[in-house]
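Researcher: Structure prediction, please.
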Amino acid sequence: MSPRPRSTSRPGPRLDDELAAIRRLVGQVLQSSRRVEARSAQAEAPATTAGPLFDLSLKLLESQVSTDLADEVTGAVRDELGAGELADPATVRDATLRQIARRIGVVSTPQPPGKRADGRPSVIALIGPTGVGKTTTVAKLAATCKLRYGKRVGLITADTYRIAAVEQLRTYAEIVGIPLKVVLAPQDIPGAIDALADCDTIILDTAGRSQRDAARLDELGEFLRAAEPDQIQLVLSLASAESVIAAAADRYGALGPDRLLLTKLDEAVDYSVVLNTARRVGLPISFVTTGQEVPDHIEAASAERLARLVLDGGSAWQAISGGR
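Model: Predicted structure follows.
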C-alpha cells in the first residue's frame, strides 16, 4: 500500500487553543524568571540602595505587577525624590502611590453624555466576552445614569442569544422605570433608537462573544455600525486570569472601544491586574463594579483608590469597601 498523504490543512481549534496555552505558559515562566532575577539583582545591590523603595519594589513584584512596570514605577519614584526623602517610608509610599495612579488612566468626567447636538439621544454600547457580568452591569449603569446623574435613560438589548439575559434586563428596567427595546438584527437598531427619542441616553447591551469566534465578532461589529454609538465601553472581568483578559482585550480592540469598564473588583485574585491591564490596553477606565447589588455596586473609577489596591491588596479592599 502506498503511504497515506499527509494533511496540509491548518491546525484545528483545539490545537490552536493548546498552542495558545503553551505560549501563555512560556510567558508566565519568563515573567517569573525575570522576577527572580530582579530580586537577586536588588539583593546584591549596595546597601545604600536598600530601604523603603527597595521594600516597595519587592512588594510590587510579589503582587504580580509586571517586572517592567515595577521597574518603571520605582525608577520614577527615585527620580522624583531626593536622597533624604528616599529614606522616609511614608514619603516613599506616597510617591509610589502617585506613580502607580499616573499609570492607571481613568475617565476624567464619568457622567454619561446627554442628547446629541441634533437632539437625538446619545448611545453608549457595552461590549465584551461572555461571563464578565455585562447584563448586570448594564442595569447598574442605567440606574446610575438615572438616579445619580438625572438622565432620562433607555435600554436596547441585542443579547437575544440568552433568553434569561433579556428577561433579567427587563426585570431591572421595570424596577428602575426605564424603557427597554429588544432588537434581533442590526437593521432593527435605528427603529429602536427612534422609539426612545425622548431619552437623553441609550445604553446598548450586546451579546457576549468568545474572543475566538471571529464570525460572531464580525456580527457584533454590524450592530455597532448600525447604532453609531458615542461611546463603546469594553467590559472586562477582573476575576478572570490575566492571560484571558489580555486575549479578550486584543480581539475586542478591533471594534474600537474608547474606554474600559472593569467588573468584579471584589472577586479579583490580585489587584495587579488593574495596573497591568490598564497599561496593556491603553484605554481610560470609566467605572468599576464591586459586587452584585443593583444599583449600588458600581462606582466611577478612581486612579488613587485603584493604586491603593495595587499596592496594598486585600487590606486596602477591606478599608475601601468597609469590609463588605
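Model: The chain has 13 helices and eight strands.
Researcher: Thanks, that helps.
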